[in-house]
Amino acid sequence: MADSAYLDSTLSHGDKITQAQDSRVLLRPTTQSSIDMLPPELLVEIFHLHILSVICQYRESYSWIRIAHVCHRWRVIALAAPILWTHIYFDDRIQYDDDHPGCRCHFKLTSSPLNTCVPEMLARSGNALLDVYFLWSDWNSNSWSSDVFAVVRALISSLSRAHTFTFITHGCYHKEQDAWLQDLIPSKAPYLSSLSLTGPDLLPLFAQCDTPALRGICLSPAASAWSRPRALQHPLTRLRLHKVQSGDLSALLLTLKALPSLEELTVRGGCACMSWSHPHPVDYVSLPRLKSLKLAFKDGTTWLALYERLRIPSSTIFILNVLVPEFEDVPDLHCDQFAPTFLSRLQALTERSGKHICGVAYRSTDYDYGTTGVELYTTNNPDWLCFTSSHTSSFFSTFFHLRPPLRLTLEYESQGIACRPVFLQFLYALPLSQTTWLSVGDLIAERDGYTTAFQGELRSLIEAKMANLTTLCLAGRQTTEMVVALLSGKGTVGEEQWLVPHLTTLYLSEAVFRWQEARTEHDPSPFKDELMKVLVDRASAGAYVRRVVLSGCYGVWEQDIAGMRETMGRADWLLEWDGVDSLDVIPFF
């Protein structure tokens, strides 16, 4: 086993290994004795699940290494468990010469301190299979130091015992300049089951590597596969193709015809308004084993041209993502471009399994691109996704992500309209009478007037289409301002006076109880007072909201929670609070 001194010293740089507060491991004295009684095998399983959860949330995080520094027993167990050291992440970084501040003429590529721990992690992992994630930001390997070069060589050579291997580069591979890379790739990777390559001309590097266990491939751009058809002749069950271009349809269909064993397929278009002609009978592709299909395109018609050429089982999970870029010349998206196909799929799903739309989410879908969208779910329990945007959800099932049988995401990068007509048109066209939960989140770019405009649209939609809502999830400082309006009445008499008469559960995330300038326990909270008034009024009128969940709210005190329980005055009322005042942990802008 390699000496752990360097890795231990690296861990002292807390700012480089601690990416989020929730990834820290704390051992409370009250539970230490009971934890010490757990057998080592069980602790290793718990540690491994913790590592997977951290990596799933933030790939670059090495904060999970703290499990080896909680106590002596944990350290001994962690160091002796090879599986805990098999998830390896590497990336190179550009660091500018300190002697020439602000000058990019003098730079060198170096790695973060933790990347230099790769050889030690390889040693600690023993003979266990590896999950390797390799990000190469530039092909100028001549600028690397000898230490970084050694790390890269060790990482590439580890392909022979890799279980999954992800290779991402933002540069271009030049065979003459980087011939050493081809020489490092082993002739056989007997255990490799998943290979992900992002960057031009990467696939030829692996052309001579025998991968008998390979079952999953992800390629970006997809064009690299058309010139190397042998690379996709494995009995693949998982295929992801990104940046598919206008002229790629014929090659794509030929590729799919050679892969009848596919179970999971993702196709992402690389440009808008791709001119794919209507299908001809000879173009049809049969994928009888397909379990999951995800199509992501930048317009409302191209995806349909591909979808109509596929013959898939009625039980296939279908996810459609239509992203309309803000700065590209894309025709307006119309509901009739996709609604008929989705209604047909939904009807077939209902007839076969009795499933229907249980949940609707309207929120920001990707914080990197500032998009907003509508999602549909057939999952009846929204607890796992109430406050998460869809960019954190996974297409493929894992321990930590559920996978709905039917899901649609429509995304717009531009957010100038509170609720775009296409969203409302689509929702009004869907059968939502059995929908039980609705999740609404802030639209990042919206400012003044957003709440008022969207509030009216949302109230009309709920009244017309969602009479059986039992759960309402509101997330964001602006969206939570609508809670009283959505919980209040419609101006009529009787049980139906309430907009959501059957509501039993309310989730509120990032609600502002007090602003930053008035946040002591003695300052009044108009938000709390108005919320409790409508909740008490509903309880008195027989429209009791039995459960309220507060998550990451601003300016909340324990006295507020106690006061809310006292105001409600019912022993069966469940008020849950995570104890977090977001003003303390998140910069307030």
UniProtKB/TrEMBL annotation:
It comes from the Eukaryota. Residues 36-90 form the F-box domain. It holds the Pfam family F-box-like. Gene3D superfamilies: 1.20.1280.50. This is F-box domain-containing protein. It comes from Steccherinum ochraceum. The lineage of its organism: Eukaryota, Fungi, Dikarya, Basidiomycota, Agaricomycotina.
